[in-house]
Sequence to fold (377 residues):
Amino acid sequence: MPAANKRDYYEILGVNRKAGDDELKKSYRRLAIQFHPDRNPGNKEAEERFKELNEAYQILSDPERRAQYDRFGHAAFQGPNGPGGFGGFDFSQGFEEVFSDIFGDFFGTGRGRSRSRTRRGDDLRYDLEVDFEEAAHGAEKVVKFQRLTQCEACNGTRARAGTSGAQQCPNCRGSGQVRTQQGFFSISTTCGQCRGEGTIISDPCPKCQGQGRLRKAESLAVKIPPGVDNGSRLKLRAEGEAGYGGGPQGDLYVVIHVKEHRLFVRQDNDVIIEVPISFPQAALGTEIEVPTLDGKLKLKIPSGTQSGKILRLKGKGIVDLHGYGRGDQLIKVVVETPRSLTARQRELLEEFAHLDGKAINHPLSKGFVDKLKEMFG
Fold:
């Protein structure tokens, strides 16, 4: 069609000259569905409109061509190297890809519908429960699970041993796709004979029924690194399920669950423990044994220690999983009040209470009383 008789490409797509790529595609999609020949059988006017839309979209969706069109109009594409109308476009590459992207789901031409001949095996997850000490120090555990493994009888080929194996599908010639021509447009669909595989096995392996894989019970030794915590994931490469058709094996993810400890509580890389002491020990000071992840250690309790006091043992916590040192152990002192007293104990405590009337020995109490006076006068 002469350039003088051509409609403006922007007018054809119903957009202005500043329209972006998304707006172009959205408008093209709406109009192309409306005027597609499959929706308008025998309608020559709709077919011409559809051709016009395709020509306009191919020019304006290409930044370089669009710049030429904006500068020179239709004259930029006239001559032996220009599109010269719809017949000059190459639909085997760029445009077919654009059309597949837009209409793939509607017309069954979408990319990704054909099945790959080889596929990576699935990843597996195993939830592993470990003791607090095992998480802190590291350990080696044996996990038992089931996974799909390569069939030993056919070595994953899916064909009976000794046969010629998989043959090229005669219907699609190994592509897994069948092309059908609808007017000027070519549509690809998954081959129904090989189901997109591209090959056909006439004599499948009897052991795996032509699947190439069998489910099998497995035992695997897993090294637990020091410092793992609840939710830590250990990735064991190529320990998942076998690939399909010779594809690579998946991975195994071991998810850690740490049991609660009777004494220790973890806070980041620190270990916290509460230790009860008596009133005389807190008042006079003493030395006690405390449990740690490395065994028992002696700890000095200073005289006058208050209940809730935190004492710290440097480097006695949990090793950082990423190698950034080791945490501490925090000992929370709890001064325990006796629940029952002998007559002699009561007598001595009453005498102590009588002698312990000076506020200098109870700074917290004095401060509390002073605050009350300030509030209520």
Notes: The CA atoms of residues 138 and 226 lie 4 Å apart. The chain is about 25% helix and 25% strand. Confidence is low (pLDDT under 50) at residues 80-115.
